[in-house]
Amino acid sequence: MVTLKDIYYRPVLDQVMISFDGTTCQILHEGKWIRGSFDRNICIDQPTHGRGQTHAHILSRKGNEIGVVNIDGSGSHGTRFQLKDGDADALRASGFVIRDDNVVEWVAVDGDQPKLLFG
Fold first, then answer.
1. pLDDT of 43-85, one tens digit each?
2. CA 49 to chain centre
3. What does the alpha-carbon distance between residue 18 and residue 63 come to, in Å, rounded to a whole number?
4. What value, to the nearest 5°, has the Cα angle with vertex 45 and ends 74 and 29?
5. pLDDT at residue 112 above 60?
6. Contact, 56 vs 69, CB < 8 A?
7. Which residues of 89-118 are buried (b: 16+ CB within 10 A; e: fewer)?
8. Alpha carbons 115 and 42: distance in angstroms, whole number
């Protein structure tokens, strides 16, 4: 008989490498699930573009996304929320800088940033 535990705790791949020529490879970085307030409610992702940061998606018990926090503690994807203590502690243990009050804020930067113009 297969139990829920057997299904839920199956081995997972945590690193995938692909090669097109047999001598060099590329590592595919997928999200890493960690335990916060409950098992597998935080997914830590690597940046997918340019100057992005490592960030974590925080999920509710129903699987809805509560918010996204960057490794420097700033909000990502336009989110502002307060982390539960268990989630904040798990993120701190994973190297995230989380404020003492567990608040994550997204800050819009004004127009003094460099711009790329296409002609």
1. 998 876 667 788 999 999 998 999 999 999 998 867 789 999 9
2. 14
3. 30
4. 150
5. no
6. yes
7. ebbeeeebebeeebebebeeeeeeeeeeee
8. 34
Average pLDDT of the residues in 85-113: 86
Q: How far apart are the first and last CA of the chain?
A: 65
Per the confidence metrics, is the pTM higher than 0.90? no
Residue with tokens 């113009």: 117
Kind of pairing between the strands at 16-18 and 103-104: unpaired
Instruction: List the structure tokens of 90.
Output: 């798990």
Tokens of 39: 């098992």
Q: In what order do the strands lie in the sheet with 32-34?
A: 32-34, 42-45, 55-59, 65-70, 75-76
Tokens read off for 102: 């567990």
Residue type, 33: W
pLDDT tens track for 11-29: 665 667 778 888 888 776 6
Tell me the three state secondary structure of residue 89.
helix
